[in-house]
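Q: Could you fold this chain for me?
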Amino acid sequence: VVASMRKRMWDTGFREFQTPIITSSSPEGARDFLIPSRLHPGKFYALPQAPQQFKQLIMVSGFDKYFQIAPCFRDEDPRADRSPTDFYQLDLEMSFVEQQDVFDTIQPVLTGIFEEFGKGRNVDQTWEQISYRDAALWYGSDKPDLRNPIKMQVVSEHFAGSGFAIFAKLLEQDGTEVRAIPAPTGGSRKFCDRMNAFAQKEGLPGMGYIFWREKTADAVAQELGIPVKEAQAKLKSGEVEGGMEAAGPLAKNIGPERTEAIRLQLGLGLGDAAFFLGGKPKAFETVAGRARTAIGDELGLTDTNRFAFAWIVDFPIYEKDEATGRIDFEHNPFSMPQGGMEALEGNPLDVLGYQYDLACNGYELVSGAIRNHRPEIMFKAFEIAGYGADEVEKRFGGMVNAFQYGAPPHGGCAAGIDRIVMLLADATNIREVIMFPMNQRAEDLMMGAPNDPMNEQLRELNLRVLPVES
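A: Sure. Below is the predicted structure, expressed as structure tokens.
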């Protein structure tokens, strides 16, 4: 895979550069691995989380197409799709480009890789672009699996002031809404109860549901005001058409008109179901996304013979800590804000960046941005997040100084090679495709790492190891 990537990048006119492994610490979003300096006691280098500043400096120096098979180091908690220590990425940067130019450059490279190594599975040729907000709403994730056709929708209007008191009272609070997860072919009580149990395992009280079934004799009897046996006979003879009815506790509480409005909005019919979650979106979005995945898998709606890609765009640059009220970077601090300096004069939480991720089959494969290449905008962006000019100069002096001479507009991205190979190999854990993987406690049991340093080493580095507090 790496050999094919290299050839494709060279063939596209990119030059390959190696950037330093020993560097300085920077706020990339994860924890750095720090390295004590022997020659400068008390000071530390860091292993790069990504060659971010170096590749931007390459653009300033006049090379307009850079790539590297870059080793990256992050001190992170292990996950099935993430190494806890180091990984490799196809890292690229380009000058005088806009967002679409980056997309148009990386798409044929990755399409070719997945066609070459994907064992004949279908590879999407059209990659749609979905805003971060829409991805959260429709899929409950910023790395949606588009092989699953289910798309969630807001249905708050059908529950506001309804007979279902839980949702009706909830919607009286600011910032709350009710969302529906359509479940085509899921219209049985047994399946609905199973998904309700799934929600409870995820820590929720449950999920409300409605399913649509053939009208029962009881319902016909009630409708026509006749005995149930007579209704059964009329249904059997065809004298009365059965039709469809909504079933489930929610249907009874909100009534037939609201239930029918929900069915029409979601485009559902006989034999289908819908599940409902309510509250402040950030509190339930992730669980809703997992429920969407489980529903798609259980009902056989997910196309497993396909690599489905989508660009997630329009990421917010800032987030607010609810406990402290502090504004900080939510995503890459080096992204150019949409609207430039003018955008930074308003509410920070409304500022979107020219940042983008590529999702494939429920995994993030690529992350990138059009960079903030203007010093005055960079200083302002960091100031909003609490970094003064002195701090920015101290942390990013090399890049800030270079930008003073005039930097070209530039942008790029990085594709996680280990994760790409994991998908191609049908593995569910990234350790299966890494030659010498760490275990789930970030330990290399073969080499015995991490281990205790020798006293002479600590003395050379002017370090002392404190005992761990129990």
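A (continued): The mean pLDDT is 92.
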